[in-house]
Structure formats: C-alpha cells, structure tokens
Amino acid sequence: MPAKAHSKDAATNPRGIPYAPFVDKVEDYVSSRAEVDGTMKSFQEMISKYQFMEVNTQRRAAGLKEKIPDIQKTLDMVQFLKSRKPGSDPIETIFELNDTLYAKAEVPPTDEVYLWLGANVMLSYPIAEAETLLESKLSTAQQSLENCEEDLDFLREQITTLEVATARVYNWEVTMKRKDKPERGEEEADGEQKRVLPNG
Question: Which uninterrupted H or E stretch holds 154?
Fold first, then answer.
C-alpha cells in the first residue's frame, strides 16, 4: 500500500484503537493494477486484527456483566449492615458454603466486614471503608463496561469501513480490466490490418 495510505491510520479512539482508512478515491491507494493484490491483502489483515480485538472485547464485556451484579449485591449488603444500629437484635441469614450446601447464621450488629479480593485472599475492612472500596470498584467496572460497548461499536464500524474499501478496490480493478480489453482488441485489430494490407 502506498505510504500516504498509512498516514490515515494515525488517529485512534480513546482506548488507542486506530481508525481504518476510508477509501474515497481508490486512486489515492492504488496507482496501478499491480498494487491491487497488496492493498487488498493489507485490508484483509486489518480486518482480521479488528475481528480479533472484537472477540477479546466481547469476552471482557461478558466478564464485566457477570461481575457488576456481584459487586452491587455486596455493596447493598454492606450498606444494610451499616444501617443497623448498635444494640439491634441479631438477624438470621442463610449463607452459601458451596454450590449445594448452605448454613444458617445469626449476624449481630457489626462495624467490620470481610471482603474477598480474589486469589483466595480475604481482608477485614471497617464498614465505611468497605462501602467506599465497593463503590469505587462498581464505578470502575461500570465505566469499563461502557468503554467495552463503545469499543465494540467502534470496531464494527472499522470492519465495515474496510469491507467497503476492499469492495471499492476490487470494483476498480474490474473496471480497469474492462478498459484494458477494448484497447487490446484495437491493438490486435490494427495488427491484423497491417498484415493483410498489400505492399506498395
């Protein structure tokens, strides 16, 4: 692909994903039919990269969609515990030990909670700190999901842009082939005439 085509790839979205080149005039990218194959191959490679990013972003978004309700549920519980006054009667609850085993427990008013941080790590937090931490985690996860959804829309647009660009370059090549055929036909006809014309 000509060097001037690469300059259009400099702009990116907020997460650093580059814009696909928009082919308005094929002649800006292809100066002869000899460059068509290389240009189309370059476009196909870019489409593959965008599709790879799309799959990874979809997975990340799916993970966040599972994670956000869990964070929200934990935050709701922390806020409920925070609202209980000292001296209140214990509340009876059922908690999960594993997928099929549950146990009953009585929970008195408390000023601390234990939060799973992942990798089999659990830490004790004062309720106010736990609430702040969970609110921050929830906000970050929601923003990340919003970014993923924006990136997915952006990636789909870039794939479409490149598919249109590929079609335009292909159609340009077909048009050039059709133009070449009459020219060759005329040259061959001239040659035939020269061969049959009598000398002198």
Answer: helix 127-196
Q: How do strand 91-96 and strand 112-118 relate by DSSP bridges?
A: unpaired
Query: Do 48 and 40 meet the contact criterion of CB atoms below 8 Å apart?
Result: no
For the chain, the distance separating the N- and C-terminal CA atoms, rounded to the nearest angstrom, is: 52
Residue 27 structure tokens:
């002649």
Q: What is the 3-state secondary structure (H, E, C) of 156-185?
A: HHHHHHHHHHHHHHHHHHHHHHHHHHHHHH
**Nearest by Cα to 8 from 37, 57, 46, 49:** 46
Measured CA to CA, the distance from residue 21 to residue 10 in angstroms comes to 10
Ramachandran bin of 43, using left for φ above 0, alpha for ψ from -120 to 50, beta for the remaining angles: alpha
pLDDT tens for the chain, 200 residues: list them. Answer: 443 444 444 699 999 999 998 888 888 888 788 888 898 999 999 999 999 999 999 999 999 999 999 999 999 999 999 998 888 888 898 888 888 899 998 888 889 999 988 788 999 999 999 999 999 999 999 999 999 999 999 999 999 999 999 999 988 888 888 887 765 555 554 555 554 445 54
Q: Can you tell me the distance from the alpha carbon of 92 to that of 185, in angstroms, rounded to the nearest whole number?
A: 93
